[in-house]
């Protein structure tokens, strides 16, 4: 496995245990001579109470499980680095954003609703959590692949989660929003309209975790050396583009390979295809806070990129798989409250609630307050304070002081310097000696802290705050439909059709007609065309006005609801559609199924494989059995994929090479299923000359995405067509439902 070392992986490596060439021991290190038999009175039992080695083993086994995350339970992690590429020194003091700085990261992608063992391909939001191990402590950017959220206030979070999770009486459905309680909640909460459109878009069924965007959702603040703040929204932009699968595919992938995304991420990193994202920021000067038609503190709103462009400030590369899923991915504790100097919260009421929840949940999930000491969570610059004891404490704190201020411990650990001066009463701390915070015992500053020399420590940005204590919501949060409309109108016709189909699917799974009608009424407010099309599929005519119950609940928050919205600055954005623009796109890391059998021509395989691999794609040979494939000329090749074990939905494109295999393929229903389904899902299919006749046995019709060797420049064309990701025009022209 190719991997890159960085300060975090080096720190982690010290904890890696390798059983290779080791004698088996108990947890206390006592050598074990028999790990197969319990201690018994006579070889037919009974077992003896004094079998301490058996108890040692079972006691640990009985406690292997910890609570799964209440949301985002299913996740996949990877290590990497972030390199800062822009000079932002006038707007933030964040050390890791200084141009040229390389910071280790650990990333965890997740689905939200499903349990830990649920399918990767659920229609769902994807979590995109990044832990930066900076020289000034850990910074967690805990975002999603959808830029807005269902709710505006943290008070509603347990409700939206309870609504989407399996229903409490029968605990179904698993990892699915297509059920009554979810749409009951959504249809009573018009603020969720915008996000519900994103979740019904192709964004919610990604082709790969390497092909999703990431968003902070909330507006945060950058803080500069003078304490001045600038509002900021974060965006991760994948180098491979943003792509989804078709819903029909997603459902089938869930059966053929429920770990499809996890496997794809692991394999890509394992094979040295390190996924990359650029980090972008939208910057809004403090004085422009109220300038927009929407409130920048409202997490159900985007800031259209036409209004505030995304400035790219660095690149993240994931280049190492975890050694151990539990120790790293499962025990990783993300928390949007982990900020570093130079970054601050905004007053977004959803974000404010998150600051409590994550710390609280980690304490519970990871069994106490020492989760920071787990190898994956440790900062690389060390932690030095007077917090002590508790379950699972690993650090051995030296010295007799664990309070502040102190003189006995030489005033250590001491405050970060304020404005270049030593802060507080512990002015002697700079000369810290081996007795105290200087745990290297050599005196002076600890090596790991060298990067923090001169830091001002964490400074909250300046902000004037006043107001009555109220449980209320600002009317600047009351426009629930304008941006949902913006999203719908910014999609291509194909994407709009997918959204209509997704809503129709989900609402058809809802048993209550009242809920269906209520949701249709909301969608009518978003865009009549959308509501009418879904209504047609449900046999309902959408009401032009919101349901009384929806209005009643909306008036809890805004007594005068509905409130006339401001005129939007942007009515259609060029940045929201996932459709590959003409002449753009890449086939890097795409999986192309070569459909063949014994007797296939080596030349016919070889020339296409070479061309695809040159363009960065991967050829996967599929035959009727594992083992050795026999080529027509007598050559052989090892085969790992078969028509029995694999399915068309797991591949991006298809090629049928020529040779003596054609007759077998013509009679192979699994082969015909592969190409028929590939065609249905709007993928590109290429056929060698001898194989062109096989098309007659399928329901494939010639179009731009069906490429024949007998055509000129067919190989180059195969690649050009694949770059489009899908031939969506096929779906529109032939009404092939994908
Ligand atoms: Fe989370 N969320 N969330 N969330 N969230 C959790 O923390 C919560 C929200 C997000 O890979 C939990 O460690 C509240 C928005 C991700 O480990 C929990 C509110 C966004 C992850 C929690 C929100 C997110 C979580 C569950 C509303 C996008 C996975 C386990 C106030 C910006 C982190 C855990 C990982 C996980 C609470 C809303 C993203 C319970 C209370 C908005 C990516 O603490």
Notes on the structure:
The structure is a single chain. The protein has helices at 7-13, 52-62, 157-164, 180-188, 193-199, 247-256, 260-270, 325-330, 349-365, 482-490, 493-508, 513-526, 528-538, 548-557, 602-614, 662-666, 669-680, 714-722, 728-734, and strands at residues 75-84, 102-111, 126-134, 137-144, 214-215, 220-223, 229-238, 276-285, 311-320, 343-345, 591-595, 618-623, 627-630, 636-639, 641-642, 653-656, 684-687, 706-708. It has 738 residues and is α/β, with parallel strands linked by helices. α5 runs parallel beside α10 (482-490) and α11 (493-508) packs across α13. The radius of gyration is 29 Å and the shape is globular. The protein starts with 6 loop residues before the first helix and ends with a helix. Residues 418-444 have low confidence and may be disordered. The site of CIS-heme D hydroxychlorin gamma-spirolactone 17R, 18S has 26 residues, from β2, β3, β4 and α9.
Largest sheet features? 10 strands, antiparallel
- Quick one: overall form? globular
Topology, number of strands: 18
Q: Which cofactors or ions or other ligands sit in this model?
A: CIS-heme D hydroxychlorin gamma-spirolactone 17R, 18S
The end-to-end distance, rounded to whole angstroms, is 37 Å
Given helix and strand content, the structural type is alpha/beta
Query: What is the top-level CATH class of the domain at 591-734?
Result: Alpha Beta
User: Which regions have little confidence, pLDDT < 50, spanning 5+ residues?
Assistant: 418-444
* Residue share in β-strands: 5-15%
Radius of gyration from the alpha-carbon trace, in angstroms: 29 Å
CATH topology group of the domain at 591-734: Rossmann fold
Percent of residues in helices: 25-40%
So, CATH architecture of the domain at 591-734?
3-Layer(aba) Sandwich
Going by CATH, the homologous superfamily of the domain at 591-734 would be: Class I glutamine amidotransferase (GATase) domain
**Helix run count:** 19
* Mean pLDDT level: 94
